[in-house]
């Protein structure tokens, strides 16, 4: 509904006053229906305070601010930095954030006046050419802060995209560190299997020497050879696993695995255990929780927008027009101008606006429960990592004791076999057990170090923004 159109004179203040009064009455009625809405963002903030302490008590933990501080190896830190700059997947996420930033700028432009200009020419029947110039300025008044809410919602979307990008960076850094440790593990397992094979080949030679010396028979030779061939097969499998892990690391770094071999030592680096502080503080650092919170804020703004769609909108349009026989006069002559103001309000749309409101409210509630799920998952990840640290530590101690006993037993059986007190099957069984326990021990050490990286990620430790 157009209230008034004015030409060559200003818009009357009384018209705007009447528009404002109408809008204030409607907004007052809407306010009664919106004040009872729950504040899901506050509920989300309060949910974090329900966790006062972690389930496990730490020992020998150290304070760390970034996940790369857990493994203080310069070459590994350099690899993480390279991955952050060259990983194709991460770069796509970074570009997506830049796109979201540009889209936020488009939303913000809706609050500003829109200006357009044009110059046209027209031939009449007597071949006279006339020129028409026009400049139009339009502006929608943001009396109800609807446009501001749209900008705020876009800003929250951008914030969520930014922290999701940070989460992708943190996860990539952790994956590079895990791959580094996994290559350490594979190399140590290969060394153990090579030692096993060397021992088995020595057994074959010893059996042959005893037979040639007339001190024994060849009954155990086939058994020894069977074990040797089985170990050779296992070695081939482990070597392929190592090659695959190197390819995985190269993929994370954005390398061609066939063109560049990354040197990695065959021993574990020191990985510190990150110190867990208050749950509310640790959880507040997690990007996934921050993204879920920003999503709630964005949807609450959209719910406000849905409510304000019931309010009338007010817009002002001003235009300057000039018709002349040449372009100069058309552009710079004494233009006639007019100012148009309008107020429009929805009267009947089949209940669409009310449905939009309900959908927006339900979506906000759904986002709140998504936040709760993310929060519970985060707490569970921290508790599991803390519990694993203590459990794997005990496993490692037991395996170290078992390995010490297995080495002594293997040495004793070696002496007894040379003395003819035990048969070859007993010796092979004891040796096999010692090498198996050694493999379990280095695997437990890997699990403990990798778990510390998982703990750092769960506590919200990441890389520099």
Helices and strands in order:
Layout: E1 4-7, H1 13-34, H2 40-48, E2 61-62, H3 74-86, H4 88-109, E3 114-123, E4 129-141, H5 146-212, H6 221-253, E5 273-274, H7 279-284, H8 287-308, E6 313-324, H9 327-332, E7 336-344, H10 352-418, H11 424-458
Parallel strand pairs: 2-5
Antiparallel strand pairs: 1-7, 3-4, 4-6, 6-7
Q: Provide the number of structural domains.
A: 1
> CATH homologous superfamily - what is it?
Outer membrane efflux proteins (OEP)
Summarize the amount of helix as a percent range.
55-70%
Tally of helical segments: 11
C-alpha Rg, in Å? 37 Å
Order of the strands making up the biggest sheet: 1-7-6-4-3
Span between termini: 51 Å
**Strand residue percentage:** 5-15%
Shape: elongated
Structural class: alpha+beta
Encode the helix/strand succession as letters. Answer: EHHEHHEEHHEHHEHEHH
Compute the average pLDDT.
Answer: 83
- State the CATH class: Mainly Alpha
The CATH architecture: Up-down Bundle
Number of DSSP E strands: 7
Q: Looking at CATH, which topology would you report?
A: Outer membrane efflux proteins (OEP)
What does the largest sheet look like?
5 strands, antiparallel
Uncertain parts = 1-17, 19-23
Description:
Belongs to the outer membrane factor (OMF) (TC 1.B.17) family. One of its GO terms (molecular function) is efflux transmembrane transporter activity. This is RND efflux system, outer membrane lipoprotein, NodT family protein. Helix content is 65%, strand content 11%. It has helices spanning 13-34, 40-48, 74-86, 88-109, 146-212, 221-253, 279-284, 287-308, 327-332, 352-418, 424-458, and strands spanning 4-7, 61-62, 114-123, 129-141, 273-274, 313-324, 336-344. The radius of gyration is 37 Å and the shape is elongated. The chain is α+β, with helices and mostly antiparallel strands and 465 residues long. The model is unreliable at 1-17 and 19-23 (pLDDT under 50). The strands form two sheets. Strands 1-7-6-4-3 form a five-stranded antiparallel sheet. The chain has one domain (40-113, 144-310, 350-458): Outer membrane efflux proteins (OEP), CATH 1.20.1600.10. The two termini are 51 Å apart. The chain has eleven helices and seven strands.
């Amino acid at each position: 509904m157009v209230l008034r159109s004015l030409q060559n004179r200003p818009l009357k203040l009384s018209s705007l006053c009447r528009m404002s009064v109408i809008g204030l009455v409607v907004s007052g009625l809407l306010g009664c229906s919106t004040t009872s809405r729950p504040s899901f963002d506050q509920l989300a903030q309060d949910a974090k305070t329900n966790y006062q302490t972690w389930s496990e008590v730490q020992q020998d933990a150290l304070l760390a601010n970034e996940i790369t501080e857990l493994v203080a190896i310069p070459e590994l830190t350099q690899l993480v930095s390279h991955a952050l700059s060259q990983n194709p997947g991460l770069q796509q996420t970074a570009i997506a954030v830049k796109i979201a930033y540009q889209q936020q700028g488009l939303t913000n432009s809706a609050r500003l006046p829109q200006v357009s200009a044009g110059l046209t020419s027209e031939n009449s029947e007597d071949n006279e050419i006339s020129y028409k110039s026009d400049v139009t300025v339009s502006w929608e008044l943001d009396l109800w802060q609807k446009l501001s809410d749209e900008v705020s919602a876009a800003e929250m979307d951008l914030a969520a995209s930014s922290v999701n990008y940070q989460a992708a960076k943190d996860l990539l850094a952790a994956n590079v560190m895990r791959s580094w440790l996994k290559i350490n593990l594979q190399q140590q397992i290969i060394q153990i299997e090579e030692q096993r094979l060397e021992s088995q080949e020595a057994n074959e030679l010893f059996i042959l020497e005893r037979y040639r010396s007339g001190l024994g028979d060849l009954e155990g030779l086939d058994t020894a050879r069977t074990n040797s061939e089985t170990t050779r097969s296992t070695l081939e499998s482990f070597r392929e696993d190592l090659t695959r892990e190197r390819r995985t690391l190269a993929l994370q770094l954005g390398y061609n695995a066939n063109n560049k071999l990354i040197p990695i030592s065959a021993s574990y680096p020191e990985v510190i255990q990150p110190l867990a502080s208050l749950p509310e503080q640790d959880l507040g650092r997690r990007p996934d929780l921050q993204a879920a919170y920003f999503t709630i804020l964005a949807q609450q703004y959209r719910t406000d927008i849905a409510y304000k769609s019931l309010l009338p909108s007010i817009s002002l349009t001003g235009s300057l027009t000039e018709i002349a026989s040449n372009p100069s006069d058309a552009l710079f002559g004494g233009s006639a101008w007019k100012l148009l103001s309008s107020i429009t309000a929805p009267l009947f749309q089949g209940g669409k606006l009310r449905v939009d409101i309900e959908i927006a409210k339900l979506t906000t509630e759904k986002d709140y429960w998504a936040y709760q799920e993310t929060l519970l998952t985060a707490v569970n990840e921290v508790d599991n990592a803390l519990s694993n640290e203590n459990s794997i530590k005990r496993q490692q101690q037991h395996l170290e004791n078992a390995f010490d006993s297995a080495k002594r037993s293997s040495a004793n059986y070696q002496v007894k076999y040379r003395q003819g007190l035990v048969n070859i099957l007993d010796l092979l069984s004891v040796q096999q057990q010692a090498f198996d326990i050694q493999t379990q021990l280095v695997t437990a050490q890997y699990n403990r170090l990798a778990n510390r990286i998982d703990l750092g990620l769960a506590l919200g430790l990441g890389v520099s923004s």
